[in-house]
Design brief:
Blueprint lengths: L3 E3 L6 E3 L12 H11 L10 H8 L3 H13 L3 E4 L4 E4 L1 H12 L2 H17 L2 E8 L2 E9 L13 E3 L4 H8 L3 H14 L4 H18 L2 E4 L6 E8 L8 E8 L5 H22 L4
InterPro entries: GAF-like_dom_sf, HTH_MetabolicPath_Reg, Tscrpt_reg_IclR_C, Tscrpt_reg_IclR_N, WH-like_DNA-bd_sf, WH_DNA-bd_sf
GO molecular function: DNA binding; DNA-binding transcription factor activity
Keywords: DNA-binding, Transcription, Transcription regulation
Length: 274
């Protein structure tokens, strides 16, 4: 098989030249090209070939060929004055097509808006991408103080209510694989993170939801519930979260957690999965 190594950035993967051709089904050049697109982080508009080579571990001459190809295809734009690249419209087009095909967003949004207003918080739907959860839908209340995360925002898998909820319904082998990778990147904090995940498993078994109270950010509290997926669909999860001073643990446990469970059951039923 192709040797896949996690880079210093947990969202990137290093593909070894030594393994080229060992897995006949795996196209190394395609994989590397996609990793180049992943180099761009929120708030970063331009990156050079040297930047991307450093982040991916891919040799700079190879990076140059990949960025040239991606530019020709419209996935990157090149700035002559800066000598750097930015993401192109082709990336946005792919993301839009993915979102437009998610029926669950349209089905869930009215219920999410209602709960967000009741909680005076935010309610979001997300799916896993490596060691992160990515928001595919989000609703905010009319409150002045709330979380400002939009569609496309990434939050950690292991320390958030949404992430822990999703872990609860993954197959054991997949869950163990992800936890092993997280342990490598979070060596010092891993005992505390693991304890939070194990508590999440217990909470889900006992109550049907998981809680994150200051585990991701000290001033953020949230509750999360996973959603059953149909065969071939990516597993997803919902959360309801906001500032800790507005969402006490008692409110999460006694009010918002049960409400979010009911919301997810309604969505599953409307999608024919309940």
């Amino acid at each position: 098989m192709t040797n896949i190594q996690t880079a210093a950035d947990p969202e990137l993967i290093v593909f070894s030249d030594d393994d080229e051709g060992k897995d006949r089904q795996f196209v190394n050049a395609l994989a590397r090209g996609l990793e180049v697109l992943r180099c761009f982080r929120p708030g970063e508009v331009f990156l050079s070939n040297a930047d991307m080579a450093k982040r991916t571990g891919i040799p700079k001459p190879t990076i140059s060929r990949l960025t040239y190809t991606l530019t020709k295809l419209g996935y990157l734009n090149y700035s002559d004055s800066l000598g750097k690249y930015q993401l192109g419209a082709g990336v946005l087009a792919l993301g839009y097509r993915m979102l437009s095909n998610l029926d669950v967003r349209k089905m869930a949004r009215p219920l999410m808006e209602e709960l967000a207003e009741h909680a005076q918080a935010s309610v979001s739907l997300g799916t896993r991408d490596r060691l992160s959860m990515v928001y595919v839908e989000t609703c905010r209340s009319s409150a002045n103080v709330t979380l400002r995360l939009d569609v496309g925002s990434r939050i950690p898998l292991m320390t958030t209510a949404m992430g822990k909820a999703l872990l609860c319904i993954l197959p054991q082998a997949e869950r163990d694989y992800l936890m092993d990778h997280a342990r490598v990147h979070e060596t010092e904090r891993w005992p505390r993170i693991k304890a939070g995940i194990e508590q999440g498993f217990k909470d889900y078994q006992d109550r049907g939801f998981c809680i994150s109270a200051g585990e991701w950010q000290n001033d953020v509290h949230a509750v999360g519930v996973p959603m059953l997926g149909a065969d071939g669909e990516q597993v997803m999860a919902f959360n309801c979260g906001g500032p800790a001073f507005l969402l006490s643990r008692e409110k999460l446990e006694g009010d918002l957690g049960p409400r979010l469970v009911a919301l997810v059951k309604t969505v599953e039923k409307n999608l024919g999965r309940g």
